[in-house]
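Team,

Forwarding the record for the chain on the shared tracking sheet. I've put the sequence and predicted structure together so nobody has to dig through attachments.
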Amino acid sequence: MKTSLSVVMITKNAASTIGRSLTSVQGLADEIIVVDDCSTDKTVDIVHKVLQFHQVYTVFKHHEEDLGKQKRYAAGKAKGKWILILDSDEIVSEKLQREIVKLLNCCIAENDAYLIPYHNHFLGRRVRYGGEDYKMIHLFQKNAAKISPRLIHEKFELKSGKVGRLKGHIDHYSYRSFWQMYKKFTGYAIRDARQKKAAGEKSSLKKIFLYPPHMFWARFIKSKGYKDGWWRMPLDLGFAYMEFLTYITLALKNIFSN
């Protein structure tokens, strides 16, 4: 007997990507849960259009700045035995679809959660080096994993049990244009500065002026981002910019909060 799967997604102004993302899981999910954070574009309309013939799907409106808490809220709405967390700019590959179907058709799962490889794309081209080749736990049995509350870079950790690895991947279109990428990095930097401030971290001249070039060096040189080609350099400069803006913002928060 097939085990049920809930696909869970949080959204905010994701009209440009959410259609392809939802389409990639329609034949896979028993239910789809979308939690929208007050989108002002056509996100919710697209969700209803794409999923109008899907047997079970629900859209919730819920505002939460903390991405970890928002995903925790969304996962709490799921009814399936297994949960797949998917962002609105992520697409499940056909190979991963087949693996998950095979997993769900098994009577007894060998593991309680699975690491999934990510294929990240910059301006429509896949990047393979410089920190862009990684695996994350995004498929797990309900209540087997905990989602940490964080403004950015929320973490999924297994409470107990075993973690397996899947070979099929998720295509992640996080960096679609220069404008979108730098807008995203700006938002991340401001959120990260707030997070660091709440944790009691202080900024410094070293962090402001040395951390950004080190970030670029670590990604493009040390982690061999250059092997993707010089065309990816703006991506690593973007990470350096995000590091600079994070610690400038943190410095201002440190000054004006005293």
